[in-house]
Amino acid sequence: MENKAANDIWLIKFYAPWCILCKQLDPIWHQIGSELKSLGSPINVGKSDATTSTGLAKEFRVRGYPAILMLKKGVKYNYSGPRTKDGIMDFADRVAGPLVRSLSSLQLFQHAMNRHDVMFVYVGATSQLKGNYTSAAEELIIHTYFFSAPRDILPKAVSLSSLPTVVVFKDGTYFTYNEQHDGDLKTWINRERFPNYFRINGYTLYAMGESGKLVVLALVEEKNLCEKSQRYKSLLEKVAAEHREIYSRNFYFGFMEESDYISGLTMGEVIVPSLIVVNLSIDGYFLPPGIVETERHLLDFMNGVLDGNIQCQGGNSIIQRTRRFVYEMKVKLVLVFSQAPLLGCFLFGIVLTIASVFCYLCCKARPTLTNHDDDDDDEDGIPLLAPSLQRHKKRTNKKSD
């Protein structure tokens, strides 16, 4: 790192030798390095033992393992997506390239549309809006791609009332940015960077908390979906498409095939299949007050959430965070004892020993109070006073006499 050039681009993995997830990522990391090298990419791929290179880990503010980041022109970009080859490669390609990619032909535009579920495009000449768009791209490039294009290369079906403007293409349609209605450009981009309805995993759900929207989730089985799961998925997809104008500003829709994240949020086993609305900005959730069988039932549930008629459960208060920490520790202990009983007993023994030693030292350090027969003691047995206070007390007693 001391010898790197100013324009070098580095993709770095910080790991710890004892980290199981780091070991699982090792073969994927080697594949990424080999593939980028074979493609002639300017990205250098490396890894650093954070327990040895503590100064480097501190410089890049590594908080957990494995930590993945890209260093480009002195700017650090953290990767928070799934630890998969495709996810990391997409992140590397997105961040290493231009902040705003130019689309100079209809063919390039169609190619980009086919590759991305959500695509932001600036249309028009240089303006203050373009400066704001570039500033937003500097921060949000870790999440999504940004493009610019002249008006004449867009499909004829795309109707724009004025230029310059920013357009988001997703869900088979497009929407233009309106400052009066949508507010700050960066906030709008952050809010609209997900499809309206899609398959959601734990990483995506966590990232959706930054959008400020609520998420209506259908929790379904990973395989062999039952009739109820299929009905929930179809119901959410229909409402997301047909009522977009009403609810898209407040809700995202999707389905999850894994319930561990939601179990941690609710601090209990969740029923599958089921429906839930989550507010990731405050770690809160809403449960339907009754059975949801029809479109009307789902709309009433969502309206109740927006109107405040359905109480939000959970939250991120100190009490809730403490309860969630205890719950997560309990789950981890159960997992350790079930998969490795000897290791669980060993770790529990260490914790118990440390706690016992701590209690012993605390008890030993407590001061012992003794009764004194000194003449300066109070008649009621109050401990000996400081010399200055004793003299003051004697002078007061003499005045009283």
UniProtKB/TrEMBL annotation:
Query: Which EC numbers characterise this protein's activity in its record?
Result: 5.3.4.1
Keyword Oxidoreductase assigned: no
Q: Where is the composition biased (Basic residues)?
A: 390-401
Cite a single Pfam family from the UniProt record.
Answer: Thioredoxin
Q: Superkingdom, according to UniProt?
A: Eukaryota
Q: One GO CC term of this entry? A: cell surface
- Keywords per UniProt: Membrane, Transmembrane, Transmembrane helix
Q: Where do the Thioredoxin domain residues begin and end?
A: 1-97
Q: Where is this gene product found?
A: Membrane
**A GO term for molecular function:** protein disulfide isomerase activity
Looking at the UniProt entry, the stretches that span the membrane are: 333-358
Q: What is its main location?
A: membrane
Q: What is this protein called?
A: protein disulfide-isomerase
| Protein source organism | Mastacembelus armatus (zig-zag eel)
